[in-house]
Amino acid sequence: MEQIYIDPTIYTTKPVDSRLSKEMAVYDLLEKLDIPYNRVDHGVTATIEDCHDVDKLLGITICKNLFLCNSQKTDFYLLMMPGDKKFKTKELSAQIQSSRLSFAPAEYMEKYLDITPGSVSIIGLMNDTDRKVKLLIDEDVIKEDYLGCHPCINTSSLKVKTKDIIEKFLKHTGHVPRYVQLIGE
């Protein structure tokens, strides 16, 4: 497995170099909401495995973020769960009473969250102003003091207080999380 490049510097401010506007909008919103963060820049992290060295540097366990939908593609869900847990569709479907869950097509991810595959993150909810995406959070995620997420692009990772995401960020976006308990075995 090829090692991704990781800038070893941990930043606490937004980048000064040229970035995508959707990434810069994240830093502007976090600043506006008075949510401090640590940021690490790195090569493209396409999988949860790619994030392990970033996790170590930030001192966190990055969340696995899955963008799901029902078979009719009328209900969309963002599931946050610990990165080391296995996702079992049947287990989640039973808890939320939605049969036939699957990974949502990329076009819906871009339409509702303005993010592309590999960059899925709770931060994308800032772009879901019509609240079309329901947020599901595994209870083990909120037991952690910090969570790791991408700023709508998978070439940077953030360490943010879980409490700030729940109390400040989600209050701002208007998304009310539904907590689920996943065994993942």
UniProtKB/TrEMBL annotation:
One of its GO terms (molecular function) is aminoacyl-tRNA deacylase activity. SUPFAM superfamilies: YbaK/ProRS associated domain. CDD domains: PrdX_deacylase (cd04335). Pfam families: tRNA_edit. Residues 45-166 form the YbaK/aminoacyl-tRNA synthetase-associated domain. Gene3D superfamilies: YbaK/aminoacyl-tRNA synthetase-associated domain. InterPro entries: ProX/PRXD1, YbaK/aa-tRNA-synt-asso_dom_sf, YbaK/aa-tRNA-synth-assoc-dom. Transmembrane segments: none annotated. PANTHER family: PROLYL-TRNA SYNTHETASE ASSOCIATED DOMAIN-CONTAINING PROTEIN 1-RELATED, YBAK DOMAIN-CONTAINING PROTEIN. Belongs to the PRORSD1 family. This is Prolyl-tRNA editing protein ProX. It comes from Clostridium magnum DSM 2767.
